[in-house]
Amino acid sequence: MVNVRDLIDKSSITLTQIGVLTICVLMNMLDGMDVMVISYSGPTIQTEWAIDSQALGIVFSLALLGMAVGAAFLSSKADIIGRRNMIIICILVMGGGVLTTSLAQNLWQLGLLRFISGLGIGAMLASTVTLASEYAPDRQRNLFVGIVLAGYPVGATLSGLAAAQIIPVYGWRTMFICAGVATLITLPLAIFLLAESWDWLSKKHPPDALTRLNLILRKMGHPELAELPAMTAEARINPGVVSLFAHNRADATVKLWIAFFMGFATLYFLTTWIPNLARNTGLSLELAIYAGTVFNLGAIFGNVFQGYISQIIGLRKAIISFYVMTGILMIAFGYISGNWTILITFGLIGFGCQGGLIGLYAIGARVYPTEIRNTGIGWAIGAGRTGAIISPAIGGTLVNAGLSLAGSFLVFVAPLALACAAIGLLRSEEID
C-alpha cells in the first residue's frame, strides 16, 4: 500500500499544500486581530467607563479563560469531527462574539462577550497549527508551523495600525465592529476552499474518507489509494487528556505544559499591558498603540525565523536561545531611553518572546501522533492560557501599585527562565 506520509515527505511542495498554509495563516491573522482588539481599546474603555487597570485586567483574564477552555476542550473535538469543521465553527464563534462585543454596556457584559470570543480563538489556534503541520513535509514542518503562527502577530499588527486611526476618531465600538465583520466574511473561504487533513482522513476513517482522501491526493499529484490504511487502536477511541499521558508521553506532556504556561504568562503580560505601560512612560496615545504594534511586528519575524533556524539547530536550542535573548532585553529595558529606542526594543522583545513560544507549538506537532494531535496541542495551549489568565491580572496589580515598566519586566523574566529549564529537561529526540 502507498504510504502517503512518505510521498509527501519526499515530494516537492504542491499548490494544495500552499493553499492550506495560506488559509491557516489568514485564520491566525484573524485570531491575532480578535485577541488584540481589546488591548488597543483598553485605554479608551477605561476613560469612557471610569474603571481602573485592575478592573480591566479582569476582562483580559476572562477573555484568556475562554481561550484556555476553547483550546483544551473545544479544539480536542477536531480529532473527532475534523480540523476543517472545527475551523468553520471557530470563525462563527469568534466573529459573532467580537461583533456583539460592540454592544456591551458594562464591564460584566464586556467580560462575558470576551469569554465567548475566546472560545473560538483558543480552538482556532490549535486547529490551524495541527492542519498545517499535517500538510507539511517533515523537513519543513517547523517552518510551516512558524509561518502559520506568524499570521497571529500580522493580524495583531494590522489591527494595531487600524486601531491607531479608528479608535481616536470613531471610538472603540467601531473597532470591534470592523474586527467582527472581517472575521465573518472569511466563512465562505473556509467552507469552499479549505481542504481537510489527509492525515486525519486516513487515520480516523470518517464517512466517505477514501473518496475525500483520493480527491486530495489527485490535487497534489499523488497516486490514489485502493483502500484506507487499517485503523489503529488509538484511532478507535475518542481522544481525551488521558491519552496524552499514555505510551511514554507523560514526560513530554508535563514539561511542555510547564513551558507553555510560563511562556504564555510572559507573552500575555507584554501583549496585554504594553499599550497602557507605554502610555505611562509619557508616550502619546498614538505612540502607545504603536508600541503594541511594533511588538507584534517583531514577533512576525521571530516566528518565521524560529521555524527556519530550528530545522537547522533543533527546537531545543532554538527555543532556549530566543528566550535567553528576550530575558536579557527585558532586564536591560530600565536603562533604555528615547521614544524610538523604546519602540525598537519592544520589537526585539516581541521577536524573541513570540519566536520562542512558536517552537513549543512545533514540539507539540512532533511529539503527538495524528489521532490525538489536536488534543495534545490544544491542551498544551490550554495550559499556556492558564498562565496567560493569571499574568494580566498580576500586571494590573503591578500597574496600580505604581511599578514602572522596567520593574514589571523584571518580574516576568522569571517565567522565561523556568520555560527554558522545562525544555532543557524534556526527554525527546523529536526536538533535537
Describe the structure concisely for a colleague.
This protein is mostly helical and 432 residues long. The protein is 78% helix and 0% strand.
Describe the structure.
The chain is mostly helical and 432 residues long. It has a single domain, classed as Growth Hormone, Chain: A. Helix content is 78%, strand content 0%. The protein contains 18 helices and no strands. α5 runs antiparallel to α8 and α12 runs antiparallel to α15.
Helical segment tally?
18
Total of domains: 1
Measured on Cα atoms, how large is the radius of gyration? 21 Å
Stated plainly, the CATH topology is called: Growth Hormone, Chain: A
CATH superfamily: MFS general substrate transporter like domains
The biggest sheet, with number of strands, parallel, antiparallel or mixed sense and barrel status, is: none
Report the order of strands and helices. Answer: HHHHHHHHHHHHHHHHHH
- The geometry reads as globular
The structure class reads mainly alpha
Give the helices and strands, then pairings.
Elements: H1 4-10, H2 15-49, H3 53-74, H4 78-81, H5 83-101, H6 107-135, H7 141-170, H8 172-184, H9 187-193, H10 198-204, H11 209-219, H12 250-280, H13 285-313, H14 315-332, H15 339-367, H16 373-400, H17 405-411, H18 413-425
Helix pairs in contact: 2-3, 2-6, 2-7, 2-8, 2-12, 3-6, 3-16, 5-6, 5-8, 6-7, 6-16, 7-8, 7-13, 7-15, 10-11, 12-13, 12-15, 12-16, 12-18, 13-14, 13-15, 14-15, 14-18, 15-16
